[in-house]
């Protein structure tokens, strides 16, 4: 019994001793690690003259710009500098001296060039590159260029002109403004249209008031004059403006709209997306001649793989109604049939009618 009492006393004593030892050990330094040495003595100091971001204002596309910064070692030890990362391949930092790393003695200076290419960017441009140093207070200097990039030639209101509703009975005129922000002396050398017999053009310089309102140095107005008799139906024509600008010698405009006239097309297009190759399909369009007049129609153009015919559709003795039949024959190979039907008429005021067609032929 005495032996068990002695054993309990020994165990309790050991536990108490370990608790005292743990409490006496500092909790803030559980491991005995060496402390990193603090660098003392002379140090380099990199100083860049001016702002680190250069605001260049405006530039044109496909242009090359360059900005130079002066960097001086105003410290008491050698300053090491080298090129770091850049925001893109179009922006490159260049040290004025050869080598991947440049060393400047105290008081020495060097120049750093940032060269950038605008490429085909339009709008805001913010690019730069990093310069790395051994200056403990300024290990990195980010040098940036910022400004606005303009296209070589600007067209207002844009490359697509929507005439919306147009009457084939009446002439219609619209214009587009054309100017070059980076080369105000740019000239328009020629204008071509897809239908010169119906689309006449002329070019005139902008007036002083127009230039002032747009804050422009020079520019032109290209007038697009739609002649009476333009083909009835959906319009999609092209206007090509040629300039002497080296970076945009050709500007293509698309002119769209719906042309109405003495003949109405109802519906104005034929579209089917569920045509089965083994069954074929057919559709009809009604042609209504104003005033119930009679007219003769001939098919001047149609997509391959479809049959087209026009016949009178006199209903209840009403004249001036015709039926345009469109047929996709049985066995037509699967695929998309897309295009337009062009009808010629013998009416003096209506040369052509256009009816867009689109059929998706499936294998089942």
Quick synopsis:
Pfam families: DUF1573. The protein is mainly beta.
Structure notes:
It is a single chain. The chain has 364 residues and is mostly beta strands. The protein folds into 3 domains: 105 residues, Immunoglobulins (Immunoglobulin-like, Sandwich); 107 residues, Cadherins (Immunoglobulin-like, Sandwich); 100 residues, Immunoglobulins (Immunoglobulin-like). The chain contains 2 helices and 25 strands. It has a 5-stranded mixed beta sheet, with no helix packed on it. Strands 1-3-7-5 form a 4-stranded antiparallel beta sheet, with no helix packed on it. A 4-stranded antiparallel beta sheet has the order 10-12-15-14, with no helix packed on it. A hairpin with a 6-residue loop joins strand 16 and strand 17. The protein is elongated. The N terminus is likely disordered.
What is the tally of beta strands? 25
**What would CATH call the architecture of the largest domain?**
Sandwich
- How would you name the CATH homologous superfamily of the largest domain? Cadherins
**How many helical elements?**
2
Q: Name the strands of the widest sheet in spatial order.
A: 2-9-8-4-6
Largest sheet entry = 5 strands, mixed
How many domains, in number, for the residues? 3
Poorly predicted spans: 1-12, 14-31
Strand proportion: over 45%
| Structural Rg | 40 Å
Seen as an oligomer or otherwise, the chain set is single chain
Indicate the percent of residues in helices.
Answer: under 10%
User: What is the mean predicted local confidence, pLDDT?
Assistant: 86
User: N-to-C terminal Cα separation, in Å?
Assistant: 101 Å
Order of helices and strands: HEEEEEEEEEEEEEEHEEEEEEEEEEE
What is the fold named in CATH at topology level of the largest domain?
A: Immunoglobulin-like
Morphology: elongated
Structural class by SSE content: mainly beta
Protein name: DUF1573 domain-containing protein
Organism: Paludisphaera mucosa
InterPro entries: DUF1573 (IPR011467), Ig-like_fold (IPR013783)
Pfam families: DUF1573
């Amino acid at each position: 019994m005495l032996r068990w009492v002695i054993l309990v006393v020994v165990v309790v004593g050991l536990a108490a001793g370990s608790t005292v030892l743990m409490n006496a050990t500092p909790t803030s330094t559980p491991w005995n690690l060496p402390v990193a040495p603090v660098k003392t003595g002379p140090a380099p100091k990199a100083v860049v003259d001016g702002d680190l971001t250069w605001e260049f204002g405006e530039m044109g596309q496909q242009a090359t710009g360059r900005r130079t910064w002066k960097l001086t070692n105003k410290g008491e030890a050698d300053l090491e500098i080298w090129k770091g990362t850049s925001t893109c391949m179009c922006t490159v930092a260049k040290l004025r001296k050869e080598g991947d790393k440049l060393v400047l003695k105290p008081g020495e200076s060097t120049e750093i060039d940032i060269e950038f290419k605008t490429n085909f960017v339009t709008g805001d441009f913010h690019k730069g590159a990093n310069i790395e140093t051994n200056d403990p207070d300024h290990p990195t200097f980010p040098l940036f260029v910022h400004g606005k990039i303009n296209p070589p030639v600007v067209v207002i209101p844009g490359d697509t002109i929507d005439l919306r509703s147009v009457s084939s009975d009446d002439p219609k005129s619209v214009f587009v403004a054309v100017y070059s922000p980076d080369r105000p002396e740019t000239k328009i050398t020629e204008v071509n249209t897809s239908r010169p017999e119906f689309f006449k053009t002329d070019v005139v310089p902008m007036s002083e008031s127009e230039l002032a309102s747009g804050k422009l140095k020079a520019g032109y107005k290209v007038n697009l004059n739609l002649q009476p008799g333009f083909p009835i139906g959906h319009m999609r024509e092209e206007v090509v403006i040629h300039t002497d600008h080296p970076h945009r010698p050709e500007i293509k405009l698309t002119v769209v709209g719906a042309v109405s006239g003495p003949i109405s097309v109802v519906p104005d297009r034929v579209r089917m997306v569920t045509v089965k190759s083994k069954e074929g399909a057919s559709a009809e369009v009604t042609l209504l001649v104003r005033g119930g007049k009679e007219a003769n129609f001939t098919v001047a153009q149609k997509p391959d793989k479809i049959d087209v015919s026009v016949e009178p559709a006199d209903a209840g003795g009403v004249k001036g109604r015709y039926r345009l039949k469109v047929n996709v024959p049985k066995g037509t190979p699967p695929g998309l049939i897309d295009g337009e039907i062009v009808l010629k008429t013998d009416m003096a005021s209506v040369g052509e009618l256009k009816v867009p067609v689109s059929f998706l032929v499936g294998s089942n």
